[in-house]
Write a structure and sequence with these properties.
Length: about 90
């Protein structure tokens, strides 16, 4: 039996796999990618610091959590800064 698989969407860490009549979806998140733009950079550190100081930021992805507390804060800011300077 031949299985026909087509990836018909794969954007920004979200992929959908279509197999005949079965649709499967999965999300692959990047640790530290707080704004989910597929890169860990200075913008992620700034967003994490803004969250930490109580500034209301939209589109913050807690899936980028690096410390296991399901929150974005100092650990994610440090992680992003370490990534920027090549320590990660
Ligand atoms: Ca990012
Ligand atoms: Ca965290």
């Amino acid at each position: 039996m031949r299985m026909l698989c087509n990836f018909w969407e794969a954007t920004r860490g979200v992929a959908t796999l279509k197999m005949d009549n079965l649709n499967l979806s999965y999300n692959q998140w990047i640790a530290g990618d707080v704004n989910n733009d597929t890169e860990v950079d200075l913008a992620d550190a700034i967003i994490a610091l803004r969250v930490l100081t109580g500034i209301n930021i939209q589109d913050v992805y807690t899936e980028a959590d690096v410390s296991g507390d399901d929150r974005i804060g100092l650990e994610e800011a440090i992680y992003a800064l370490q990534t920027v300077v090549g320590m990660k």
